[in-house]
Amino acid sequence: MSEYTTVFGSLDRYEKGRLEIIDDDPRHYAFSNVFEVAAQAQPYEKIAVAKNLEYVVEVIRAEGRSDWFACAHDEFAVVLDGQVEIHLLKLDDPRSVLAQDSHGAVRVPGSPVGRKMGWMKLSRGHQALLPADAAYQFVAAQPGVVLLQTLHGDLTVEKWAEVCQA
């Protein structure tokens, strides 16, 4: 029996993956390494690393304090590396910054107006729901990595040729 050692990647230490195709055409597959994508990203750039119809998984390099974002639908965040605070604010008038049928997050200019909902401190493996019609802001004292499940929106950055290997 083979012995396996699980090694977790991080922003500072990751291995570039590779495809091991057993019985298929490698052109049917593409993959990316989320830590490599985050290592080369600008802070809070939302880079798509997976896509299924209008749904995307975005990698975010958390570093410093982000702008405020809001979304007309729920989003789901998972911290893969580092510690990230997420501050939440229930918008008084979400339709002033969000169309009801908008997809993906939008940047909220200035300081959003609303009621503070609290904040969460997340580390590797911790997950958070970012509720619809609420504004959120990430804060990370050290660089970290967040995976965000959302809908493709105006802030989604597609760099497939740069982030995928076949």
Written description of the protein model:
- The protein has 166 residues and is mostly beta strands.
- 6% of the residues lie in helices and 43% in strands.
- The chain contains two helices and ten strands, in the order αββββββββββα.
- The protein is globular, with a radius of gyration of 17 Å.
- It starts with 33 loop residues before the first helix and ends with a helix.
- 33% of the residues are buried.
Helix-strand blueprint:
Elements: H1 34-39, E1 46-52, E2 55-65, E3 68-70, E4 75-81, E5 84-91, E6 106-108, E7 114-122, E8 127-130, E9 134-151, E10 156-157, H2 160-163
Parallel strand pairs: 1-10
Antiparallel strand pairs: 1-2, 2-9, 3-6, 3-9, 4-8, 4-9, 5-7, 5-9
Helix segment tally: 2
Helix-strand sequence = HEEEEEEEEEEH
- Strand pairing plus helix content: what structural class? mainly beta
Largest sheet: 10 strands, mixed
Compute the CA-based radius of gyration. Answer: 17 Å
Name the poorly predicted regions: none
What's the mean pLDDT score? Answer: 92
Strand content: 35-45%
Shape: globular
Task: Give the terminus-to-terminus CA distance.
Answer: 31 Å
The total count of strands amounts to 10
**Helical percentage:** under 10%
